[in-house]
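Memo to structure team: turn this sequence into structure tokens by end of day. - J.P.
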Amino acid sequence: MKKALTLFACAALLMLLPAAALAETTDQTELPGESLGVTLVLPEERAPYAYRLTDAYIASRVSFRRKEMITIEPQGAAQLLVLNWYDAPASYTVSQLDAAGETIAEETITDGQLGKHIALDAACKRIVVLLHENGSLSGVAAYAADKSDLFGIPGFAPAPSQADLLIITAEPGMEFCQFGAVIPTYTKEKGVATAVLYVSDYGKRARAYEALVGLASAGYDVYPLFGGFLSDNYNSYKITTGHFNKRELTKYFEERIAALGAKVVVTHAISEETGAHGVVAECVLAAIQKCPNVEKLYLFDPTKKHNATIVEMNTPLIAYAGETASQVSQRAYEAHASRRIFGLVIDTASAYKLAYSTVGEDDAKNDLFEHIDTAQLISYAQATPSPTPTPEPTATPEPTPEPEAPAQTESVVATQDPLKADDIAVPNDPEGSVGGDNMPVLLSIGAGAALSLALFLLLFGRIRAKRGKGDAVCICLLPLALGLAIGATLAGMRESAPAAQPAAVSAAPQALQPMELPAPDDTPKPSPMPAPSESPEPTAALADLPDAQYYRSQSDPAEVIVVDLENGYWEYRSDDLGISIRRIHTKNKDGKPLTYFVADIHMRDISQFRPGFGAEGHTGRGAIYPWIIARREKAVLWITGDNLINDEREQKGILIRDGRMFWSGEKEDTLAIYPDMSLRIIKKSSMSPGMLLEDGVDNAFSFGPTLIDDGVINTQAKYHRVRRANPRVGIGYIAPGHYIAIVVDGRQKDYSIGMPVWELADLFAEYGCSIAYNLDGGLSAAMIFMGEQINSHSGLRIGDSNDLSFQRAVPDGLMFGYSEQVPSVDDPIANDGNKR
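Reply from structure team:
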């Protein structure tokens, strides 16, 4: 599960870019060499954080000041050094030293590339990186290659100074999701000089690395352009317009387009749901009016409403050994792991609206370069098939001699060369057919091959998304390797035994039994769910995965959704998210009624978690009702957060959302979500906000108190300012990606009295949590599943003080999953959190 983490996958995949950039076809192989360990020497005050440079997470990094040095010593003979910068310094020098400490190569680098690949001299034993400007480094890796042709091979060529085709995308991934035909068809198949410009990485450096991995997957080896524009809410046109500053963005486009001399520009549609896309399209359209070099501007047109030009995506391409543009772009888009939550499926309409032209309207409407003189382009050359090697001529076999009489056969064989005699196959059956002693060998190899083929066809994509391509290939090839090994063993046994031995048949592995979330001893279990309709059993390979029971099986639909209000059970299962929720009706130790909801959450990828904001501008203020946030963001599960800076911020610790610092206080402990999906309690005043961000933390919450830390219940919680019985919200941690969320209803004397914080701590402990943290409860307490609130307040604002409880608006929440099946804000709602 940990290996499926988004940021881990980005860093690991980036290390494979040399092989990906070199590939003439789409067959991807690992870097020809082994990853080596490295010994790092950092400036004294940076040394405690050296682990961040080898943890494989792009979000974690170490910041360096100008004139500081990093010394890297590979643990073995290395031929390639990879520097994964978070913020690349404007200038730095890489010096290679031999065993005697003498400099044998030195290079000053100013290209600003994030994932920089540096070829190492064979005599290099140590590398010194000297920064001439400030910079932040995310990762260091060295490789021992087994091929000499690795020398001099960079990850990417420098960013282009000129290009005939310019793809402008607001965010990484859209170059394949929306414009999937362009790079495969024009850049690779027709050799058109192409530049890719990302206006923003959406404030996530990991998305820039995903962009590099995706481009390399498609065989594009020219470093892209990054605009660096930022917004607090990229979905909002209004907010993005203000933050991008349309005047500055238009000027930026004018300068870039003119400098590149682009003749054809491709970008988004103006009227897209995503605000940033529309802002970019408007500014590009305005910019080209001042760029006489531009002959055509195409806007994405998925609805084909504008007499669109359609670029074919299903024709086999020579540059990709017969793969289609659709296949290439789909594979490249899947490198954008952070978008997995939204569904990694490209647009296949491949339709573009001609929004500007100096060469007339398209006639054939199937070519972005129609009416453009290709002779005037920097390059234009149709790909040609690689020549097939001429096979070596085979020797003419010698004529077979007449068979000797049976009485002479033994003496003839005995006088032949021993090596040739060993090669003579003597079948045991009179017909000479393949069988008898050979059959177990062939069966074992055939069975292994069949199982491997089945794994490739059925599970390769899932395993690759979870564990990376290298692991996926290895796992899928295991049955074949086992079959070959068994075959070889049987063959050896046959050689030494007088007769063939029957192959042993191993018992089929038993599927793991689902582990039920334990309920506290004093709480009754809800009534059983109605029996579901029968469906085929999951494949053995899926059943063997340790956490398979929490996610959808092969026979399930893409999303399994169960809502059983009568029995108090809700469930959601997809490939990467599993949630089961139970409603518990019981009584507290004083015999008073108590109702709470327990959500058991399993995630395979950190992208399944998102922070929710009430305000359109993601300001940390601006409260709205929880169900509105959940529906607007299409969240599968939503629980109340920490109220951000909307109220009582002076009583809090560190507040971080989406990598942005909202508040830096020292009054309360902080709950941090790390990139490996673990939760950690940061004690107040124990870590600076900057260090928390550089540790890779994109989201941190602070309300308090801490309920459990490192398996120990916080006995001081009973003295906290929010200690008394109330509606409650809390989250607990069991293992990376495995959480327990509990929401307690309260202030309703005949339904649920509420819970003090020390009892909430005990409850999390009973569910096996080693960490648990109290979030904003009271009138804010809410749990939303698929757009409907499942806990309730009385809805009374006046009357009996024991029944005064109503759902109030909140500024934030914790969100798990994304589903298009969540109703919209305008759809009817059955439970908005208030009974009356």
